[in-house]
Specification:
Number of helices of chain A: 12
Distance between the termini of chain A: 36 Å
Structural class of chain C: mainly beta
CATH superfamily of the largest domain in chain A: FAD/NAD(P)-binding domain
CATH class of chain C: Alpha Beta
Distance between the termini of chain C: 18 Å
Low-confidence stretches of chain C: none
Helix content of chain C: under 10%
Strand order of the largest sheet of chain C: 3-4-5-6
CATH topology of chain C: Folate-binding fold
CATH superfamily of chain C: Folate-binding superfamily
Order of helices and strands of chain A: HEHEEHHEHEHEEHEEEEHEEEEHEEEHHH
Chains: A alpha/beta (414), B alpha+beta (1007), C mainly beta (96)
CATH architecture of chain C: 2-Layer Sandwich
Number of helices of chain C: 1
Oligomer: heterotrimer
Mean pLDDT of chain C: 96
CATH class of the largest domain in chain A: Alpha Beta
């Protein structure tokens, strides 16, 4: 892999950019891999990258039914944070943030991780109690966390209206939170994994799971059978479909989640703002677009279309909170499929089928975990046992009752 | 000279109405009927903006909503609006517009330095740089952010109002050109409700910008007039259908008063947002001309051919005396004729070697010089075209060679063909197919989404001849209205003229990338396809070279199609160039998804009138006005406004709450408890039902008695609580938390309707039927006795029972239940008597030192007594055992909701976090709610947490602070001392106690 | 934005309804005798199919009645709605 740098950019400019390498190859699938990863989104590519670079397993294929990063990796609102309430969540998401902090350099690909701060607003006594609890929990987990007064909120966000229907009573700030360039994460991991020997195979849909003696031996795909020593499913919204191929159900339901962007304007919001009270989050991209996330619809769907009233019920409150937005314009709206568990925490787990591992259920919050999820899952697959960070997220928790119920504590999309 | 490019006559402008406007501070005039774009062009202003990345000078390309370049900062102050397309702004008197994304001025823009180092800024350059040192990224980014962003947001609240409304119709027609008019005409006439929507200020579509054909013009006028006269037809000009959602749900935004200028709309809204449900939709959205991709094709003055025609024909503006027309298809010949007729010197450069003799004859007739098999190899002029150089094109279209000619011109009118506007069909979920004869994607009717029935007709369906459009439209209108069960009307065709049959597309020869003498990306010139985002053919080559081959990767890597025009003029060119590079067919490369909205949509319009005071309804209790008069500070609980506390003059919140809390325990207080959820439950199986819903026993509850109950979900976790009273043999009155009322009713109904439909149980929400005053305190009985005929003695009316009678002359149900631990009565009267009851009690209470208390004092009082609040002391992960409430969990019932979950290993653990009381060693310290108990204090985090504070107050009754909290294995740790670590680094010590701090024996409450 | 045919009220806009997930999951009668896995399966695990889905809706801002629907989760086409307790309508021959 030829390194990217200012120097390489200048050198290539002299030769009219004729000599850039491909960021990743387009190999034909081999007959057998040590590990097959189903799903070429950020988490799947990160898993492959860490398998090849840290676990000594480079005979790995990533099978993607469409184009790399075409699922939720390319559809989210790019927020990164680790300000979670529960210890298991803090362990996972902080692990991810620490990896984010060196990711551009590690991958030699600028993923534009921008720690511009992430601010949760509290609009009621109940919200204040919620951020009070969470802020303390985060702090004691060794993660940065600050309470802001309404005046401090106003200072960070001069355009906010503190006295609307949603009075701002306070805020919880994680300065190390922020955003990253979502596509670049997929591309950077793909390039890194490819350079380490991983075969990334696009337009290759898994159609069946071959299981012998309760042990997975490979997958049938639109490009034929591919043998595998181990299989990791990292298929997000399609995890239930993959599970059905393996003969079991998951504690997951898929919902549409919508997001939208505005036309670009000069900077007006520096940090990321989230409001649990009105189920909305907003940040401004480097391009100048306001990136707005809404709550998820509550019906099962794989259609990548949501219901329009969710847009109305997101934009209306947003204009109350930020009256200036009223004259700006929505440029584009879209939807993704989120795979939601009942406790709003992911599943990283062995399954009832030997050598078949699942990483799914990230719901509305998977993007931020990408490096941590891939890292923990890679090491767990390699060892054949979930590592310390992944272990609490076992699928067994739905039988033992040891839920990681972030949802109950703060029922909000994140 | 003013309006130097305005023709002496012609156009659809009103020359008697002169309008003043300014652009970048300079004054100009235009006419009513102009757009800002046409008025600027009439004044010879061609440089209108700077591009996003390279800051290249840019002018108009289009005349419609597809315009990528001419983005304006419209108006100033509160009315300012960034990124507004000059082509979509109807001119009004006093209009103020400024160019964007330039500093210090449009003519001299420092950012243009990017253009001279463009070679170092290829697609995706930022992914390869700005990584070292890592700590510098935020600094680099600050400059990147400042440089990006186009226009400027307003800094003041929006002074305008917006409306939104719903509509339903039988047939919705999108687009008011010939096809749409024909469809609407066919559909109208019977009782069918028809809507016809068009984004322009008048109907007629493409005919408005074309050279007038009298027969067509009169047909358009007659059709429009007939539709306008029909009461079943809604005509919405200046309205854009922005989105097409499932089950034929469409959204549209109507610009009601934008064209009048700021503040001139009177009482009308600025914009109106329509949400329309249509039985059938006829899409007649037309098509968009696409540019040819040639060297420096972004120079101001290089325009789409049909735009030049539109400025001439519709606005009477001839943008230059010397015009080169550059095309690969027949349609631009109309522009050559339009320009020549208007007196311009016109040169036709056609990339095709073979052109029909008829077209050549027409050009000769208008003295237009024609070059066939030629292409533009370079453009002279930076801030405006001065000349072009043309060269013969090789037969394969890959190179230029031979004799070059230089032609002076100020305008290049170019056409690379027409792209059907399939946005709406695609948004509806339909799949596209590629039509080689027109080189564009068209709807595949076999792959339309079944739940969105409709038709695509006219140019958006690949039919360009006016006659074909009318015929297709009429047929679709007929089919649509017949599908709704109505009779269609006949559509008269205009008198046949040659123009009707002219497709304009005869023999398009695709030329996706016009070559130069240099390989792509290696010469001095740039070949743009996405103008606003500055994406060039070289960027597509680079993306392909680096493996970003999928059309989505191409888009995201190069940003092509992601600008505010969403690629209306650029998408097909981009993917065709990618197809050529990949050696693939265009359909193999595919298209990106067409997303709503069709054009950018004002956020304010989406919310409609539901803003500010009309934003959300508030729920008020019947006594609300009393609370306002009593100076209450309110708290939001769900949608309710509840009195939080009632400060006397000079009191802060703390002082008021302490006074109220003390007063309830020493005298008597009254609380408005009307928001409490109330559900009336009746039916023969009601008791059996409650047995399943609650954890405790209900069958033996005597009539007239009350019982507290906990509700669990199937996870075994507490999700609501309240007191339920047996009113009769098969009649119960259930109360719930204020915030949980709706959730509980849904929960009951879910079980009754889906799991136990055979059970005879009927639930009715009666929350708002009753006004409730909670009278709490040692003097409660004495006070109530002065107003009631009920025997209040403790023998006749014991704790946890209900009696009916009169209170203050009002029929009442009085429940002797208590949320404070004091002697208490909850007086329920029909809601209409609530205020009377409150005021009567207020007056009668004076001798008893009656106080009003709010929710905060209520919280202190209940916490003193160790009563939990579901949602504050519990969080959805808490079992009754965790709350030390095993006493309320029946050991004898075979089943109740959630019971089985107790057996799971994690739920059955005995070292779960459990409810305890906490008393800080320092009695003046009030712990923060949410503060955590740690296993061991360390100098710095991380520290292992073993519990937390859920409720914490200063108590005037205990004369010290106290708290409730959850502690790991807490039930076994009473008497131990624990440590809390605060955010500021302080450690606080607290004693673990029983959570009941007052009257553990329940003497007061039963007194 | 669906149009949903409430079996009691007729065609209404989706905004009047709330979806409550997979239908025809009967609450076990013998909860005490279930294994943790069987209980967990009832409480948490769902088919979540990509395709035809039988699901529960409630006409929350209407008659407040619960009913079942047969919907394709890919196209969002609703093929049938039916009352609780009614026979399950057959799967459509042409689901998409």
């Amino acid at each position: 892999m030829k390194a990217y740098s200012l120097f390489s950019l200048a050198r290539n400019a002299m030769s009219y950019h004729r000599n850039w390498q491909r960021a990743w190859r387009s190999p034909d699938p081999k007959k057998h891999y040590d590990v097959v990863i189903i799903g070429g989104g950020g988490h799947g590519l990160a898993t492959a990258y860490y398998l090849a670079t840290q676990c000594g397993i480079s005979n790995v294929a990533v099978l993607e039914k469409g184009w790399l990063g075409g699922g939720n990796t390319g559809r989210n609102t790019t927020i990164v944070r680790s300000n979670y309430l529960l210890d298991a969540s803090a362990g996972m998401y902080e692990h991810a943030v620490k990896l984010w902090e060196g990711l551009s350099q590690e991958l030699n690909y600028n993923v534009m991780f921008s720690q511009r701060g992430l601010l949760h607003l509290a609009h009621s006594v109940h919200d204040m109690q919620e951020i009070g609890r969470r802020g303390n929990a985060i702090h004691l987990n060794g993660i940065d966390s600050e309470f802001l007064t309404p005046a401090q909120v106003k200072e960070m966000l001069p355009i906010i209206n503190l006295d609307c229907h949603y009075p701002v009573m306070g805020g919880l700030l994680q300065r190390r939170g922020g955003t990253a360039r979502h596509d670049a994460v997929a591309w950077g991991y793909a390039r890194g994994a490819d350079a380490a020997g991983v075969d990334i195979i696009q337009n290759c849909e898994v159609t069946g799971m071959r299981i012998e003696n309760n042990q997975v031996v490979g997958v049938d795909t639109s490009r034929g059978f591919i043998g595998a020593g181990k299989v990791g499913s990292v298929a997000a919204g399609h995890s239930s479909v993959i599970a059905e191929m393996a003969g079991f159900k998951l504690p997951i339901e898929c919902y549409p989640l919508q997001a939208l962007v505005s036309e670009p304007v000069k900077p007006i919001i520096d940090c990321v703002v989230m409001s649990n009270g009105i189920h909305v989050y907003v940040s401004q991209s480097d391009k100048g677009e306001l990136v707005v996330g809404a709550g998820s619809d509550a019906y099962n769907s794989y259609s990548q279309r949501g219901s329009y009233d969710f847009i109305e019920h997101t934009v209306g409150p947003l204009c109350e909170l930020f009256p200036l937005f009223s004259r700006l314009r929505m440029l584009r709206q879209w939807a993704g499929i989120v795979d939601v568990t009942v406790d709003r925490s992911p599943i990283l787990s062995k399954t009832s089928v030997k050598n078949l591992f699942f990483n799914c259920g990230w719901g509305t919050g998977g993007f931020k975990a990408t490096p941590g999820s891939g890292h923990a899952f890679a090491h767990s697959i390699a060892a054949g046992e979930m590592n310390a960070i992944a272990a609490p997220f076992s699928i067994d928790r739905f039988n033992t009752g040891a839920l990681i119920d972030e949802g109950a504590a703060a029922a909000v999309a994140h | 000279m003013s309006q130097s490019c305005r023709l002496d006559s012609g156009g659809r402008i009103d020359r008697s109405k002169v309008l003043q406007f300014t652009f970048d501070g300079k004054s100009y005039t235009g006419f009513k009927g102009d757009t800002l774009a046409s008025a600027l062009l009439a004044n010879g202003v061609k440089l209108l903006g700077r591009s996003f990345k390279y800051h290249r000078p840019r002018g108009l390309i289009a005349a419609g909503s597809e315009e990528p370049n001419a983005l304006m900062q419209l108006e100033n102050g509160a009315y300012t609006e960034p990124n507004t397309r000059a082509t979509c702004i109807e001119l009004y008197d006093g209009l103020v517009a400024n160019s964007q994304n330039r500093w210090p001025s449009l003519g001299f823009d420092v950012g243009a330095i990017n253009s001279s180092v463009a070679r170092f800024l290829p697609a995706g350059f930022y992914y390869k740089t700005f990584m070292w040192p890592a700590s510098m990224w935020m600094t680099y980014e600050k400059f990147i952010r400042k440089a990006a962003g186009l226009g400027v947001s307003p800094t003041e609240p929006d002074p305008d109002v917006y409306h939104s409304r719903y509509a339903t119709c039988d047939v919705l027609v999108i687009g008011g050109g010939p096809a749409g008019l024909a469809a609407a005409t066919a559909a109208a006439g019977s009782d069918a409700r028809v809507m016809l929507i068009d984004e322009q200020s008048e109907f007629g579509g493409s005919t408005l910008g074309a050279a007038a054909v009298p027969e067509v013009a009169s047909w358009v006028a007659a059709s429009t007039a007939a539709l306008a006269a029909n009461n079943n037809v809604t005509l919405l000009p200046r309205t854009t259908v922005t989105g097409y959602f499932d089950y034929n749900y469409l959204t549209a935004v109507e610009k009601v008063t934008d064209h009048l200028g700021p503040g001139n709309g009177g009482t009308a809204p600025r914009q109106r947002f329509w949400k329309i449900r249509a039985s059938r939709v006829v899409i007649a959205a037309g098509s968009i001309e696409r540019p040819l991709v040639f060297a420096d094709n972004d120079r101001p003055g290089i325009m789409l051919a049909n735009a030049v025609s539109t400025y001439i024909n519709r606005f009477g503006v001839l943008p230059d005396q010397n015009i080169v027309v550059f095309t690969n298809n027949d349609s631009a010949y109309r522009t050559a004729v339009d320009a020549a007729r208007s007196g311009a010197t016109v040169t036709m450069v056609d990339t095709r070697a073979e052109v029909s003799a008829e077209l050549t004859r027409v050009l000769q007739q208008h003295k237009v010089k024609q070059f066939t098999g030629h292409a533009i190899s370079s453009v002279q002029g930076t801030k405006g075209v001065k000349a072009v150089r043309i060269m013969p094109l090789s037969a394969d279209g890959k190179s230029l060679q031979g004799q070059a000619w230089e032609i002076n011109c100020g305008i290049v009118a170019n056409s690379g063909g027409w792209t059907p506007s399939v946005h709406m069909f695609s948004q509806s979920g339909g799949k596209l197919q590629y039509d080689n004869s027109i080189e564009g994607f068209v709807p595949d009717p076999a792959k339309a989404k079944r739940i969105n029935p409709g038709f695509s007709v006219g140019a958006c369906n690949g039919s360009f001849a006016t006659g074909d459009c009318i015929a297709e439209g009429a047929q679709a209108g007929r089919q649509a209205v017949e599908a709704c069960g109505f009779v269609a009307s006949d559509v008269a065709m205009p008198e046949l003229t040659d123009a009707l049959n002219d497709t304009g597309m005869g023999g398009i020869a695709a030329l996706w990338l016009v070559p130069t003498v240099h390989p792509v990306g290696e010469g001095p010139a740039k070949h743009f396809h996405d103008f606003q985002n500055d994406v060039t053919a070289a960027d597509i080559h680079l993306a392909a070279r680096e493996g970003y081959l999928s059309v989505e990767h191409l888009k995201r890597y190069t940003t092509t199609g992601m600008a505010t025009d969403q690629g209306k003029t650029s998408n097909l060119n981009a993917l065709a160039i990618m197809a050529e590079i990949r050696g693939a067919q265009i359909p193999e490369v595919g298209t990106t998804t067409f997303r709503p909205p069709f054009t950018p949509l004002t956020f304010g319009a989406i919310g409609g009138q539901e803003s500010k005071d009309l934003f959300l309804q508030e729920r008020h209790t019947p006594m609300h006005q009393c609370h306002v008069q009593n100076n209450a500070v309110f708290e939001d609980v769900g949608d309710w406004k509840r009195p939080w506390y009632f400060p006397h003059s000079g009191e802060d919140m703390h002082a008021a709450v302490q006074r109220e809390t003390l007063s309830v325990r020493t005298d008597v207080g009254m609380l408005d408890a009307s928001t409490l959820g109330k559900i009336d439950i009746q039916g023969a199986d009601a008791a059996e039902f409650l047995e399943m819903i609650y954890t405790n026993n209900w069958k033996k509850l005597a009539i007239g008695n009350c019982r507290y109950g906990l509700m669990l979900n199937e996870h075994g976790m507490i999700f609501d609580d309240g007191v339920t009273t047996r009113l009769g043999e098969h009649h119960y009155h259930m109360t719930t938390t204020s915030g949980g009322a709706a959730r509980v009713l849904n929960w009951l109904e879910e079980w009754l309707q889906t799991e136990w439909p055979e059970k005879q149980v009927y639930c009715t929400s009666v929350t708002e039927q009753w006004a409730v005053v909670a009278l709490n305190g040692p003097k409660a009985r004495d006070l109530l006795a002065t107003l009631s005929d009920i025997d209040l003695s403790k023998e006749a009316f014991p704790f946890m029972s209900m009696r009916e009678g009169q209170v203050a002359g009002i029929p009442a149900r009085v429940y002797r239940i208590s949320f404070t631990g004091e002697l208490a009565y909850e007086i329920n009267v029909p809601a209409r008597f609530g205020r009377q009851l409150w005021e009567t009690l207020q007056e009668a209470g004076k001798p008893f030192n009656l106080c009003h208390y709010g929710t905060e004092a209520m919280h202190v009082l209940r916490a003193e007594k160790g009563f939990i609040i579901v949602g504050q002391d519990t969080d959805g992960t808490v079992t009754p055992a965790d709350m030390d409430m095993d006493w309320i969990v029946s050991k004898t019932k075979p089943d109740f909701l959630g019971k089985r979950s107790f057996l799971r290993s994690d739920t059955a653990r005995d070292d779960r976090q459990q409810l305890v009381g906490l008393l800080t060693t320092d009695p003046t310290v009030v712990l923060m709610e949410g503060a955590h108990i740690v296993q061991e204090i360390k100098d710095a985090p991380p520290m292992t947490t073993i519990g937390r504070v859920t409720s914490s107050y200063m108590s005037p009754n205990l004369e010290r602070s106290f708290a409730l909290g959850m502690l790991k294995n807490g039930l076994a740790r009473k008497g131990e001392t624990v440590q809390l670590s605060l955010m500021n680094g302080d450690a606080v010590e607290a004693l673990v106690t029983d959570p009941v701090f007052i009257d553990k024996e329940g003497v007061r409450v039963r007194g | 934005m669906f149009i949903i045919t409430c079996p009691y009220c007729g065609d209404r806009d989706q905004t009047e309804f709330t979806c409550h997930g997979e239908a025809h999951i009967a609450r076990p009668l013998n909860t005490e005798s279930l294994s943790d896995e069987e209980w967990g399966d009832y409480v948490f695990f769902r088919q979540n199919p990509k395709g035809m889905h039988r699901e529960r809706w409630v006409h929350a801002h209407g008659c407040r009645r619960w009913f079942n629907a047969l919907r394709n989760t890919v196209s969002d086409e609703i093929f049938a709605t039916y009352k609780v307790g009614d026979a399950r309508p057959p799967l459509p021959e042409n689901p998409s």
